[in-house]
Every structure is written in C-alpha cells, then in structure tokens.
Write a structure and sequence with these properties.
2 domains, mainly alpha, 0% strand
C-alpha cells in the first residue's frame, strides 16, 4: 500500500495521513492509495508530457502559418526524438525521476533562449533598429561577440540533439542505463520548445538570424 502523492509506503499506518506529503488515505478505500509504488509519479509525468505535446503542437502550427520552414524542420527532428525519449523513459523507469537532474537538463535550452533574447534586445538598442544587411557588418565589437556566442550556443544545442538518436540507442542497451532515457527526453524536448520560440521574434530579427 503506497501513497498516491509521493509513493511512501503506508503499510501499518493507522493515522490516515501520509507522513511524507500529508495526503490523506483510507485503508478501507482502495481508491485512496496505490497497491504498487510508481503509479502516482508516472501519472503526473504523463500529464506533463501531454502539456509539452500541446506546446509543441502550437509551435508547429505557428511555424506553418508564418512559413518558417527552417524552424519547422528542426521542430520535427528534435520533437520526434524528444517525444520518443520522454515516452520511453516514463514507461521504463522503475522509480520517480530526480527533479534536480530534470531541471539541470533544461538549463542548456534556457541558456540559449536567454542568449538569443538578450541578443535581440542588444541589437535593437545598439543599432537603433534591426540590421539592414546579412551578417555582422556595422556591429560594435560587443554586439559581434554577443551574436557569435548566441550562434555558437544554438549550434551546439542542435548538434547535441542530432546526437540524441545515438544516445537513445546506447541508453537502451542496458537496464541500468535506461533510467537516463527520460532525462534525455527532457533535454531534447526543452531544446525543441526553445527552437520553436524563434518564429515568435520580430520578422526582421528572424530573417537576419537564419540568413
């Protein structure tokens, strides 16, 4: 008998309250506890997975409506490996994933989003508008470095996602390494969401970025 909120073992408890998360249960009501551990967190993970799929679908629709072909292609590539990794990871894991590791896996994508967003702001303030030409002509030294850093971070993120297919196959070889498939899914899906945000930027900036 396990808690539906935190998987705590409730066998032998008579208080009717989980000592770990304070969620109430009734030993006489099978609907208030789980017979096996892991059911509760797995349901929550499927809920998060559904939310991510909705966000991804919205980004795909926006990319199609704005004719953002490059973004759409990257969304399909990174989204497919991300969905496969997350779904496989949720099904194969036998214990609740570590929240700290999951948060750490989102850091690269968040860092790239911060770099690109700050670059757009820096660019507009430094040039008094958006670039009129391709490249970094007319950029100040600091703006040029900023642009190089953003491009470098974005490229590394894309290359890492392309390698994710090989990593998925590698992690699936042994039961011990299968626990990392879920975290690989977190990394690739967060990267996918990051890429999908590009078409929401001003058109002039998006055109400069891809050119």
């Amino acid at each position: 008998m396990y808690c539906t909120g935190c998987d705590y073992q409730l066998e032998g408890l008579t208080t009717g309250t989980c000592p770990e998360c304070r969620k109430r249960f009734d030993p006489a009501d099978s609907g208030t506890f789980m017979p096996f551990p892991g059911c509760g967190w797995r349901k929550r993970q499927f809920g998060w997975f559904a939310l991510v799929l909705i966000l991804l679908a919205l980004e795909v629709v926006h990319a199609v409506r704005t004719y953002a072909d490059s973004t759409l292609f990257l969304l399909v590539v990174t989204g497919s490996i991300g969905c496969l990794s997350m779904l496989t990871g949720i099904l194969l894991r036998r214990s609740r994933p570590d929240l700290r590791i999951s948060m750490l896996m989102t850091m690269p994508a968040l860092a790239v989003v911060a770099l690109i967003t700050s670059l757009a702001i820096h660019m507009y303030m430094s040039l008094g508008g958006w670039p009129k030409t391709i490249g970094t002509g007319g950029f100040s030294r600091s703006l040029e470095i900023h642009a190089d850093l953003a491009m470098f971070g974005f490229t590394i993120l894309l290359l890492s996602n392309l390698l994710a297919w090989a990593m998925l196959l590698g992690f699936g070889c042994t039961r011990r390494s299968q626990q990392w498939i879920y975290h690989l899914g977190i990394f690739t899906m967060s990267s996918c969401i990051c890429i999908g945000l590009l078409p929401f930027a001003p058109d002039q900036f998006v055109s400069w970025w891809w050119d």
